[in-house]
Amino acid sequence: MNVITKDMPNDWKDLQQQVSQILKECGLETDLERSIETARGTVEIDVYAEDKTQTPTVTYLCECKHWASSVPQTIVHAFRTVVTDYGANFGLLISSKAFQSGAYEAAKKSNVRLLTWIEFQELFVERWINNYMLPRIYREADPLIEYTEPINSRIFRKADALEKGKQQRFIKLREQYQFLGYFALHISIQSSLAASFISAPIIRRPIPELPIKKGMSVKNYNVEGGLPIELINADSLKDFLNILSKHIQEGVSSFDEVFGERA
Description:
Helices cover 52% and strands 15% of the residues. The chain is an alpha/beta fold. The chain folds into 2 domains: 12-123, Trna Endonuclease, Chain: A, domain 1, CATH 3.40.1350; 126-259, no CATH class. It has a 5-stranded mixed β-sheet with strand order 1-2-3-4-5. Helix 4 (117-148) packs antiparallel against helix 6 and helix 4 packs parallel to helix 10. It is elongated and about 75 Å long. Mean pLDDT is 90; it is low at 191-204.
């Protein structure tokens, strides 16, 4: 399964911030180190999150442990009490390492989930893709798709009005970025129709298994007009997204420069 990032948090604060960021990108409202009032008094929670897209609102309390050793059952018992006393829907205890066997016993038959850093990502990866990754690709790639699609009379009319040198530059840019534009289109709209625009057999799912080089032959990406090597080597969703975004933005900027504005 694809992971959002393979980078391990540097310390406890980084773990908190990354957990909060992922939840925020999934569409939740988050708050770091928030003090909450429970039946037994005030408690500080590492990451407090609310999912207001659900009715009623779903509340998550997240405790983040960046320890050198496995988390023991005493920590689970204490956190389970906090989750219950507050009335949260879910408690997520996230460890950068692992948990002692007794910890899993302590979490049984409760709404507390014990998660490693990778398991936390796996729990939210589909939502992260649908709520953050795909909309961002669609939004950023839209101008590049317009510049490179086979038939776009509006763009072609503007290109015909350019001086000869810029017309030639426009044609070369279309050749250079056409495959990247179709690739982004296929991913962003998540439909079987998108796949029909791609002649090369690259992917048949909105998000391919990373790195995508495993499902591609060299001729599909190692030629002019193909996909950047760093993109096909990306082994996490966040790296894949950032690299794709960088090349899309470079392409859009190059086309904008030819037209002197956004065409």
